[in-house]
Amino acid sequence: MTLQNCYDAFGGDYADVSARLRSDRLIQKFILKYLDDQSFHLLCTAMAEKDYEEAFRAAHTIKGLCQNLSFTPLLDSSSRLSDALRHGWTPEAEQLMEQVRKDHLTVTAAIRAFREECEEG
């Protein structure tokens, strides 16, 4: 699996991240680091505890990471959730969280598949 294939698997914008980071080595380094980032875990915990201030911070962090790495679908969903939580709880926050969860799982599954192929090859 190439980085392009990985990005295709989750609907990311490989051309955009390539233009920004200019090196497949850097792209690979940062997408693999995303797997260790705790922001999604913090978001899940904060939403479960109804700590919407912390949930906003976590969603906003995910949004920033996704913008830098061109994780387009997760960028879109985390951006909508971040906007919804900016001033506290909103009725659509739970539904938006489900889309973030779905997009996050899609991204991490593709990155894990990429990592496994790199380790085998």
Give an account of the 3D structure:
- Helix 6 (72-85) runs antiparallel to helix 7.
- The protein is mainly α and 121 residues long.
- It has seven helices and no strands.
- It has helices at residues 3-10, 14-21, 24-34, 39-48, 52-69, 72-85, 93-120.
- Helix content is 80%, strand content 0%.
Which secondary-structure class do the elements indicate? mainly alpha
Q: Please report the number of helical segments.
A: 7
Terminal residue distance:
10 Å
**Mean pLDDT across all residues, rounded?**
96
Order of helices and strands: HHHHHHH
* Spatial shape: elongated
What is the β-strand count? 0
| Strand coverage percent | under 5%
**Main sheet, how many strands, which sense, barrel?**
none
Oligomer: single chain
Radius of gyration: 15 Å
Q: Unreliable stretches, pLDDT < 50, 5 or more residues?
A: none
Helix content: over 70%
